[in-house]
């Protein structure tokens, strides 16, 4: 009887777990955002900043193409919010410009007009 | 469609090959300029990273570098007075490198993860970064050193809870403390100075072993601790930190910064800590740490034209009151036999500094700077029946001119300084007064070849109104066998006028008579030493091995002898030898991408002549070990730290008094080794961080830290014989809020 109860419980738990997993995975969307990042330090800043945004699963910046690839949960966030997050880190995102204050505070080497 | 793609692919590949071919065959040409005003930097060094193949820039800042010998893709560009930069060449054949100025007056801003042992400085330097600072409990400077092996923090006595730093086995008074490279918290502020700066005011801390540079005066003997305060230009808009611990001590900190115009910015920093809970966990009838109230304000301004002028201004005011002693003691009670023993202190301090620098147009290596600072320190205290008052007015002016001879391989800094000190002390009716007026001049020459050798030679001459001319020579040499193996040698002299009472406040918490030899002379010492740093990579993970040895020998020292007799402390000039030999070996290694490890071993041999006999300094263990494990998940969402410190056996004075045989010898006994563990866990969110930690996790305590605690008005009473923690395990928690 006891064994059966444990079995039942684990079955329910497994079911719940896979359900929530399916839900989390099902809503995953991906977007590519063109940024004004110029160096590896920018990459670290942007990837770290986005990791703290709600709904973001993964964010990867390719420094050469300046393209940021974000995989996110569309129910928790939106592309607009992601662009805004990039702006607030001091970088342009597609057509939206960096927040001036955040841009001013970037290290010299991370500014888009820095000569490299 | 497919064929188009394929064709495009081949075209790209071919292009890529051509480009990389072109990149390899061609010389790399470029230009090095000042980031602020785009003027060319003449004589800057450009080197293929990890090689000896280097060149330097011509009169227009241009350089040409032969192709990299082994396919290196990055160059390192360095220039005296500028922040070095590593630039990825990425197949380009021409590039422009902007270097940012870091002249002694302007600042380097370093955030996040960086090498804790700098590869660039000519001195043996280490940095405690902003991230390291969040690894230990909050909120004063003493706790900032907990995850660092080079600086020891010890409790000075069992009543005041004051913490002192030690470097090279020598008392903290021999370490020069500076804030933003301006000498600070000197003289009478020394005993409690680690309390006077909150950890939340600090951007980073530089620790320099050895005598260092002549620019900041003659005082440093064992080393320098430079506290870099938050930069108004880079500070967060709002930062709040709240902290509470299991003793019911709490701290609150608020920083706020404003950019008023594009050129003018300010940061205002507030700190308070309070303890009103009486704690006596070792049941000796005495509070384990005093009740206290502390209010501290720091306001810093920066005016940066982005061109030639930069000016900074800082003002600090603080008030701290403490009440300690027996649990039953209340403020103002009469202190006599049959009543309670208590200690009270009140500190009122205001201080300020300003720094102005002008960089010459088209000569970025040439600048002139003026540093002014002043402080008024008022300390009023009572230890049982013994009152002590100390008052100090300080003023300092330092004018520094920096330029180059011919090209920037030969640069120099020279200038004039003037120091004014007014000390007034009153110890139970015994008055001590001293006024110092010290004009001085200094010159420092720096030679740096473009690859691997830096020589710094400096000398200063000061005329002290009480002690005549003081000459202070100092030398530093740095030689890179290759970019990963660096050796440094340092030699220099230090000079300071001791403040025997302030530096031995702990001894006031006893019934010892204070006895001063007539004609106490200034302290003078030579410090010689060197270090070897090896950066390495094992399995693509970076590490560093650092070992150093320093020998300090005193020509004169004020020796506080509290060991020859239990009834007095006698301050005398050194009569004989006094030295410290210090050896340290440290390894830092990234075990996995999430786990960093730091391990250190230290050996100290510190001896002083007491009463004609060269004896080991009590309380200083010969062997110490240090281990720090730092764990962080990607993006630092979770961080955990564990620090273990082990102290070998040591000699402590034996207070079992026996009149028959202690004519000359100190009676000592050996106490057993012990270890202290501290740990902390932090969880970070977008704007919030919460942390939970513990100090002295194994709850190790010294038994009976107060000698004669049952009769504090009796002759045997002494609270300064402390060699282990007085407070047991403390659990704390806190949160931080940041608005960037």
From TrEMBL, chain A:
Residues annotated as signal peptide: 1-22
Keywords: Signal
Example GO molecular function: metal ion binding
Record-linked InterPro entries: HMA_dom, HMA_dom_sf
Highest rank taxon of the organism: Bacteria
Pfam assignment, any one: HMA
Keyword Ligase: no
Positions of the HMA domain: 26-94
Protein name per its UniProtKB record: Heavy-metal-associated domain-containing protein
Organism of origin: Rufibacter hautae
Automatic annotation (TrEMBL), chain B:
Database matches in InterPro entries: Beta-barrel_TonB (IPR000531), Beta-barrel_TonB_sf (IPR036942), CarboxyPept-like_regulatory (IPR008969), Plug_dom (IPR012910), Plug_dom_sf (IPR037066), TonB-dep_rcpt-like (IPR039426)
Superkingdom field: Bacteria
One of the Pfam families matching this protein, by short name: Plug
GO cellular component: cell outer membrane
The keyword Transmembrane is annotated on this UniProt entry: yes
Organism placement in taxonomy: Bacteria, Pseudomonadati, Bacteroidota, Cytophagia, Cytophagales
Subcellular localization, as worded in the UniProt entry: Cell outer membrane
Family named by the database record: Belongs to the TonB-dependent receptor family.
GO MF, one example: siderophore uptake transmembrane transporter activity
Organism: Rufibacter hautae
BP GO annotations: siderophore transmembrane transport
Signal sequence, start to end: 1-25
Protein name, per record: TonB-dependent receptor
Swiss-Prot/TrEMBL keywords: Cell outer membrane, Membrane, Receptor, Signal, TonB box, Transmembrane, Transmembrane beta strand, Transport
Topology in membrane: Multi-pass membrane protein
Domain TonB-dependent receptor plug: 121-223
TonB-dependent receptor-like beta-barrel domain boundaries: 245-697
């Amino acid at each position: 009887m006891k064994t059966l109860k444990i079995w039942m419980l684990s079955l329910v738990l497994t079911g719940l777990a896979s359900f929530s997993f399916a839900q989390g995975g099902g809503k995953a969307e991906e977007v590519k955002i063109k940024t004004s990042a110029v160096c590896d330090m920018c990459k670290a800043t942007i990837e770290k900043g986005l990791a703290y945004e709600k709904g973001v699963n993964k964010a990867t910046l390719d420094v050469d193409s300046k393209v940021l690839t974000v995989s996110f949960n569309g129910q928790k966030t939106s592309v607009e919010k992601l662009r805004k997050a990039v702006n607030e880190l001091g970088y342009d995102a597609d057509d939206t410009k960096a927040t001036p204050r955040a841009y001013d505070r970037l290290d010299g080497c991370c500014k888009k007009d820095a000569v490299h | 469609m497919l064929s188009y793609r394929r064709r495009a692919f081949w075209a790209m590949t071919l292009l890529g090959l051509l480009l990389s071919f072109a990149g390899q065959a061609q010389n790399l040409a470029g230009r090095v300029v000042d980031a602020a005003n785009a003027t060319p930097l003449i004589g800057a060094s450009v080197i293929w990273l990890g090689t000896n193949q280097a060149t330097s820039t011509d009169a227009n800042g241009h350089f040409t570098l032969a192709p990299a010998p082994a396919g290196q893709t990055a160059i390192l560009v360095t220039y005296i007075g500028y922040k070095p930069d590593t630039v990825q060449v990425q197949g380009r054949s021409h590039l422009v490198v902007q270097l940012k100025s870091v002249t002694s007056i302007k600042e380097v801003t370093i955030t996040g993860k960086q090498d804790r042992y700098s590869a660039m400085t000519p001195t043996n330097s280490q940095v405690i970064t902003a991230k390291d600072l969040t690894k230990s409990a909050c909120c004063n400077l003493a706790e900032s050193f907990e995850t660092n092996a080079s600086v020891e923090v010890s409790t000075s006595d069992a009543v005041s809870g004051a913490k002192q730093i030690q470097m090279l086995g020598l008392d903290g008074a021999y370490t020069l403390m500076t804030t933003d490279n301006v000498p600070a918290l000197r003289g009478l502020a020394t005993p409690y100075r680690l309390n006077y700066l909150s950890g939340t005011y600090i951007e980073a801390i530089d620790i320099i072993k050895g005598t260092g540079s002549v620019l900041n005066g003659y005082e440093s003997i064992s080393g320098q601790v430079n506290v870099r305060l938050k930069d108004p230009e880079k500070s967060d808009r709002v930062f709040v930190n709240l902290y509470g611990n299991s003793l019911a001590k709490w701290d609150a900190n608020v920083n706020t910064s404003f950019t008023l115009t594009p050129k003018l910015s300010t940061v205002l920093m507030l700190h308070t800590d309070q303890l009103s809970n009486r704690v006596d966990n070792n049941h000796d009838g005495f509070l384990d740490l005093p009740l206290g109230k502390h209010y501290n304000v720091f306001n810093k301004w920066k005016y940066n034209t982005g061109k030639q002028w930069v000016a900074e201004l800082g003002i600090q005011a603080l008030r701290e009151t403490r009440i300690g002693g027996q649990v039953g003691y209340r403020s103002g009670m009469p202190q006599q036999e049959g009543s309670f023993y208590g200690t009270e202190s009140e500190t009122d301090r205001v201080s300020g500094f300003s720094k102005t620098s002008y960089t010459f147009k088209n000569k970025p290596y040439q600048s002139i700077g003026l540093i002014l600072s002043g402080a008024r320190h008022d300390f009023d205290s009572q230890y049982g029946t013994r009152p002590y008052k100390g008052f100090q007015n300080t003023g300092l002016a330092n004018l520094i001119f920096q330029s180059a001879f011919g090209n920037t391989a030969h640069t120099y800094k020279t200038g004039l300084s003037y120091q004014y000190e007014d000390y007034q002390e009153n110890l139970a009716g015994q008055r001590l007064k001293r006024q110092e007026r010290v004009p001085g001049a200094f010159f420092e020459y720096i030679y740096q070849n473009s690859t691997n050798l830096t020589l710094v030679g400096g000398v200063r001459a000061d005329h002290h109104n009480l002690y005549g001319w003081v000459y202070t020579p100092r030398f530093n040499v740095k030689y890179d066998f290759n970019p990963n193996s660096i050796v440094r040698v340092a030699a220099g002299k230090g000079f300071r006028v001791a403040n025997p009472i302030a530096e031995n406040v702990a001894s006031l918490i006893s019934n010892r008579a204070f006895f001063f030899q007539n004609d106490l002379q200034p302290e003078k010492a030579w410090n010689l030493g060197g270090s070897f740093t090896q950066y390495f990579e094992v399995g693509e993970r970076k590490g560093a091995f650092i070992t150093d040895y320093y020998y300090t020998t005193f020509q004169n020292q004020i020796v506080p002898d509290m060991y020859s007799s239990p009834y007095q402390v006698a301050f005398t000039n050194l009569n004989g030898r006094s030295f410290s030999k210090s050896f340290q070996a440290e390894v830092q290694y990234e075990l996995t991408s999430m786990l960093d490890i730091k391990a250190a071993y230290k050996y100290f041999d510190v001896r002083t002549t007491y009463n004609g006999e060269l004896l080991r300094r009590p309380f200083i263990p010969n062997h110490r070990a240090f281990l720090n494990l730092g764990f962080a998940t990607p993006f630092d969402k979770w961080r955990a730290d564990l620090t273990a410190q082990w102290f070998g056996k040591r000699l402590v004075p034996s207070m079992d008094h026996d009149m028959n045989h202690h004519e000359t010898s100190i009676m000592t006994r050996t106490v057993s080794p012990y270890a202290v563990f501290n740990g902390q866990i932090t969880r970070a969110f977008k704007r919030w961080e919460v942390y939970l930690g513990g100090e002295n996790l194994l709850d190790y305590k010294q038994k009976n830290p107060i000698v004669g605690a049952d009769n504090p008005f009796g002759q045997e009473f002494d609270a300064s014989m402390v060699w282990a923690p007085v407070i047991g395990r403390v659990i704390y928690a806190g949160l931080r809020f940041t608005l960037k």
